[in-house]
Amino acid sequence: MPELPEVETICRQLKRHLEGGLITRLRLARPDILRGAPERALASVLGRRIEKVSRRGKLVRLGLSGGRLLVFHLKMTGRLVVGPERRPDKHNHLLVTVGGAGGACQLHFDDPRRFGRIWLLPSAGAEEMPPFLNLGPDALAVTRPDLAARLGASSRRLKPLLLDQKIVAGLGNIYADEILHRTGIHPLTRGRDLTAAKAAALWRNMRLVLRHAIRRGGSSVRDYVDPSGRRGSFQLEHAVYRREGLPCPRCPGTVRRIVVGGRGTYFCPRCQRPPPCGVTGRRAGGLTKGCP
DNA sequence: AGCAGCCTGTCA
DNA sequence: TGACAGGCTGCT
Questions:
Q1: Active site residue A19
Q2: What's the confidence (pLDDT) of residue A276?
Q3: Angstrom distances, CA of residue A219 to CA of A56, A223, A225
Q4: A107 near A96, Cβ under 8 Å?
Q5: What is the DSSP letter of A59?
Q6: Which residue is nearest to nucleotide B8 (CA to C1')?
Q7: Tens-of-pLDDT digits for all 292 residues of chain A?
Q8: Distance from C-alpha of A111 to C-alpha of A78, rounded to nearest angstrom
Q9: Which end of chain A has fewer CB within 10 Å, C or N?
Q10: DSSP conformation class of A37
Q11: CA dihedral of residues A181, A183, A189, A194 (deg, nearest 10)
């Protein structure tokens, strides 16, 4: 489940290994995961140079010479692996051979669940087409007032709001829960009910948690590894994610799990106060009485 | 706004 | 062996 910190870690590695290299061979094993251009258009990528590796939200961009962009979304189980030439494994979807100053290497895009997608786009105007169309500002680029405005304009609960890539791009289930916990906000709080102080703290903690997770190489909860096969270590510092029944690290409370918008949501009911007039997380009632 | 569907590996 | 995991699209 690569989210912003994992994708950032991946990008930094790809940058080191791929930037400046020439694409000498391509093998698309599963044409159905390619979007934005027909399969035959992939041939036009041969011989182009990988000029710039970048990230926006959870998307990885390879900027190619000649105005092309190769974009990857890893979704849940996708992996980008770089290394010496080797046989593709059975879950390989795209194999790119890159010639560089230090000899050839290969980029493998593998995804056992096949949720992952690849786009081939013209770099001019790419921001106005899928998958960038409707994508909100990156979680590490959004300004404090912009985030406050985006959350405050909505009556939706904060958990689904933070997961909505149109609001802010890069957060997934792990970091949404960790950020809400660190800020002491109940996941069912509605966006419009955020106080200015809480919105500011949320922005600060979002940056803090994401930056710290990047320093740890991301979270390896189940099978995430970076392009060199190394696991991250931020999972060791998760305060709530997948810690149901365990003590909250910040207060004497116990971590609970509820389902919000179909997603498992972990929080501490003691230090993440219930929203003023909302559901408590157990069952509706009690607190809602008397609220306008 | 909420949920099925896409997928398959993993765990109870 | 069946439920579950979850990012995102598209449907209701």
A1: no
A2: 66
A3: 18, 10, 9
A4: yes
A5: E
A6: A113
A7: 799 999 999 999 999 999 999 999 999 998 888 988 888 899 999 999 999 999 999 999 999 999 999 999 998 889 999 999 988 888 899 999 999 767 789 999 999 888 899 999 999 988 888 899 889 999 999 999 999 999 999 989 999 999 999 999 999 999 999 999 999 999 999 999 999 999 999 999 999 999 999 999 998 887 788 888 888 999 889 999 989 889 999 999 999 989 888 888 999 999 998 876 655 433 333 343 334 3
A8: 4
A9: C
A10: S
A11: -170
Which of A2, A131, A160, A187 is catalytic? The answer is A2
What is the number of other CB atoms lying within 10 angstroms of the CB of residue A164? Answer: 16
Give the 3-state secondary structure percentages of chain A, helix then strand then coil, rounded to 5.
Answer: 30, 25, 45
Query: Amino acid identity, residue A83?
Result: G
Judge whether A202 and A142 are in contact, CB under 8 Å: no
A250 flagged as catalytic? no
Token pair of A187 as six digits:
């996941």
What confidence tens digit (pLDDT) does each residue in A221-246 have? 877 888 888 889 998 899 999 898 89
Residue A198 contacts residue A166 (beta carbons within 8 Å): no
Instruction: Report residue A96 as tokens.
Output: 């790119």
Q: Which residue approaches B3 most closely, CA to C1'?
A: A262
